[in-house]
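Researcher: If convenient, please comment on what follows.
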Amino acid sequence: MSNKQTDVWIDDAREWINNSSYEGLLERWRNAPAGDPIFQGEIGQYYSDVMEKKKAEVGHDEAVKASKSIGWVK
C-alpha cells in the first residue's frame, strides 16, 4: 500500500539515515518514542542495515565511545 505522501516520507527518511553518523543513528535508536515509524517495516530494516554498516565502518572502539556519550534515557 503506497501513496505519494508515504513515498516522499520514505525518501526523506532514507536521506536522513544516509546522511546521519553512526552516533546520530544510535541516538535516535535509543531515544525515539516507542512506535516511531522509522523503525517499522521496510524503512526500519533499512535503518538497521545502514546502522550496522556504519558501526562496522567506525569500528568497535568508536562505537563504544559513541554509546557512552549518548547514554540511556532516564
Notes: The mean pLDDT is 91.
